[in-house]
Amino acid sequence: MGQFRFITAGESHGKGLTTIVEGMVAGLALEAAYINKELKRRQQGYGRGPRMGIEEDKAEIMSGIRYGLTIGSPIALFIANRDWQNWRETISVAPVDREAEPVTRPRPGHADLAGVIKYGLRDIRPILERASARETAARVAAGAIAKRFLEELGIAIHSHTVAIGGVRAPLRDGSPRHYGLGEASSTDWQQVENSPVRCADAETEKEMIAAIDKAKAEGDTLGGVFELIAAGVPIGLGSHVSWDRRLDGKIAQAIMCINAVKGVEIGAGFPLAGLRGSQAHDVIEPGPPPVTVSLSQSSGRAAEEWTEKAIASEAKQSLPWHHATNRAGGIEGGISNGEDIVVTAVVKPIATLAKPLPSVDLRSGEMVNAHYERSDVCVVPAAGVIGEAMLAIVLADACLQKFGGDNLKETLANYRHYLSFYVVADGGP
Ligand code: EPS
User: Which terminus of the chain faces fewer neighbouring Cβ atoms within 10 Å, N or C?
Assistant: First the structure.
């Protein structure tokens, strides 16, 4: 990561989570309420466990903001763990008289076993505390800052649940997923926000809820698939020139590193394997692109406030060509091509089972059931919100690398200047 970076710290049942975000420009309007809204979205979702009833995630801004505006210095955020009150002895920073009983029954599919060996511990507790998806609250807080910045450039990011267990949402407008242009404009995002499983299709939503209920009753867990869409992305983020500058590579890493994610696709993804070259690509046609995204659609802001979005949209309209489809998911040769960026991720069923899988006790070497305290049944809806945060972080970083600037006005001026010569240059090498 380059211009825009962040690091998180904190154990799941420790005092709280800390994140430090570095590289954000000065002059960006940012309030805790904006970050807290994102934190709340992550906490919702049908299938979460009892822990979410305890926590009410709120970010305390410790630095980097003055009078509601960023000042260019690192932004430190703290999110308290309410549950820490119940774990003060177990997660004590200072030595205690009587240490907690060690966790010695590793859960298949979790970091438990490889973690204790790697870190030379006899207790799995420190591994599971940090491997816990609790850490993703800090990522969502960092991602909210990236999202706020991208809004200024007219870029909006959405997510929705495509599948839970074996239940799959129908394809939009009957066409194969990812193939249409203007994905963001063809989904009812308000409906997604209102859905407990973050799925816009009411019938599928019911089936997903029933599947979660069934898995819960049977002491099991469910995985699924979420989709991310970034709309309003300019042409030219990332680069084909070096492996580590390719935008799709950066996105894949940022999404794959979300807890429980086991697969990432960009655009048409894995089904491309079965297609011929003549079917797999997005034909370039003459004439300006069709207008697909209405200016006020992606957020609650009025159309006239979306100055940058309007400018970007106008710049796109000035091009003498357009893509007929979006199988590439908005990225060709590691460079954003101006279409919606479409990313899909597979979330495995989480490894903590109420009816635990067989394991081996690390102390006795005997066969036992894996460790269980309590857990979620399905985290796919929450994973989509975390995916939005990670995608926002990658895109904010890519925008800052491309357009630079130390204050927002400077960045926006650079952005407008770039858009002003969007049209293919005449002459040159
Ligand atoms: C998690 C186990 C559960 C989840 C937790 C992730 O927590 P606990 O062990 O306290 O019941 O609720 O997720 C969160 C706390 C969160 O904020 O998302 C795990 O083992 O990964």
Answer: C
